[in-house]
Every structure is written in structure tokens, then in C-alpha cells.
Amino acid sequence: MAQSLAQTSTTCQLTTHPIPSLPAESPPDYVLVRFLASPVNRVDFMVLNNQYPLKPKYTSPITNTPIPGFDGIALVESSTSPLFSPGDLTLPRDLGLGTWRTHAILPASSLLKLPPSVSTISPIDASLIRSGALIAHLLLTNPSTPLKAGDHIIISAGTSTVSQFLIQLAKHRGIKPILVIRDRPNPEPVKAELLALGAEAVLTESEVEAGLLLPKQPIILALDSVFGKTGELLAASLAPGGKFVLVGLLAGPKASMQLTTQHLFNRQLSFLPFRGSEHLKRMGDEQTESLIGEIARMFVDGTLKRPRVKVVDWTTAGEGEVEKALKEAVELAKGEAGHVKTVWKLT
Fold first, then answer.
1. At a CB cut-off of 8 Å and minimum separation 6, what does 197 contact?
2. Worst-scoring range by mean pLDDT, 197-211, 237-251, 300-314, 330-344?
3. 0.85 exceeded by the pTM?
4. Contact 156, 226 (CB under 8 A)
């Protein structure tokens, strides 16, 4: 039997229904996939709370309610598309595919294929590529913010999946990332963990505000996933001529930052948006799939290591356990510092 976690208002319910199949009269270019793993991302929380402009595209066949999930890894079981064959591993190309389910029939154009050479990748690792390691790579190679070995950059949400992938990739290029983490009673273990991954320095928000421990070398780029007060701290840390890139809105969709003439005229800072989906569109299919293959190989050969995650296995979870895990993940993301991402192991 297939399963899906369907959204009803701001709650979700695990439902069971027959495994779908591609009918003989199916139109060309459709694929039946079996999802292997799907992470619970910040954007999913925003979708569940009606705070995100993009909504799930699919509904549960039983409850007729939206199926959440923007990210994951799936195995092709059958296909009417010449681009996909049974056994291919795929990632979402489009947003809103409803990846919190075990099976789906999807347009071939909505999927990206991993090369056969990385077929041994762990499903948990692979599920973190699209919205984690891939985004980190794009941020470091963005033509609008060129970087070279020795450059210092500052990054908010330092314990996030993207940040932890970013510091590993930066280390290989000789770029020196400074991570900013939320204040917490005992930050030292978290700092030690991030420094071991390759961070140049790890500061709490209070330490940044106090001007402590910042390097003598100029910080030329700020990558901010929080906005609000945290964004203001990062902007204040930039050297004249530096660039501020807005990556996310963890402070909420209504958060704001105060900019003054000091930012724009005296210090000549640039403020830029970043949307990973738009970058991928500009890259095109061939280049995007090549880059995803390159990142997947880094997981296989051990160059990239995933952050700590909480894996919830749908195949062994008891009644209500999945829904309980989702509620706990939402509450942790709202409150405690050092949020650990939840990943659904689906099949």
C-alpha cells in the first residue's frame, strides 16, 4: 500500500491508499516514482502555515487535501518517457511535488535524474542535495558575488543544513566562512562541531553585535537566511563595497531591516536576492544535472558529509508517530537553537 502525509489546514494526517500505476493509455512523458526519503525543510513549515506563495500541486486521493513536501529522492518504477528508465534516481525539478508520500505519478519534466555512477548514494544523503548541498554550491559560485581563495564571508543560521554544506565546500576552495549562530546557554560544543567542518570562526549573535572575534581581513560577502536584526548585524560586519545576499526569511515573511545612507552611500554596500530555483532555470537542464551528479559523487566519495538529522522511518513508525514527529519538528524550528532537521525514510 502507498502512504501520504496530507495537509489539512495546519495539521497533517498519514493516510494509506493503493499504490498507483501508469495506465496503458497514459500520455507520454510520465513517470511512476517511489519516494525513498524526504526532508522536512523550513519552506515546508511556511507552506503548512500559509506563509509561502507556492502551494503543493497534488492532493491525497483519499482525503482530497494537499500533500506537502518540496524535496526528496525517488526511484523510477515505470516510465512512458524516453528520458527515464526503471531504476533511475530522481530529484524534484519543480517545487510543490508533494514528496511526503511513498509513490507518485509525475510529469518527466518535473524531475531531475542522477547519473548511474552515483546509484550507491545513501537515500538520506541524496534527499538533502536539492535544497541543501546544491544551494550551498550555487551560493559559493554565484557570478554576482565572485569569490576567490582567502576571501572572508559571513553566514547566518550557522547550524542550518545549507550552512554546514557551505563551509565544507568553502574549505575546498580556500574561502574562509564565519558562521553566526543563535545565542544559547552553552554554545561551545556547537562551535567546536562547526569549526571541525571548516569554519574560520563561529560567533553567537551577541558576539557579532559586540564586535568580538571578527577577523582583521575584510568580510566581502554576507549570506543571510534570517533577515531582521540578524541581517542588520551581518550588514554591519561587511567591509566597504561588500555584498549582502538574502537567502531566506527565518525571521518570518513580515520581518524587516533598517538601511541607512551609511549602508548605501558611504559604505556602498550592495543588497541582492537569491532564489535557487531561478538560478537553476538559467543554468538549463544539462548543466543542472551535471552539477547534481558532481555533488552526489562528493557524498559517495566522502568529500561531503551530511549534518546530524533525525530519521523517522514510515515503514516501522507506529500509529500517530509520523504526525507526532512533524509536530515536534515544527515546534523545535520555532524555538530551540540548533534545530536538527527531520528526514522521512519512506520506503
1. 164, 167, 168, 171, 305
2. 330-344
3. yes
4. yes
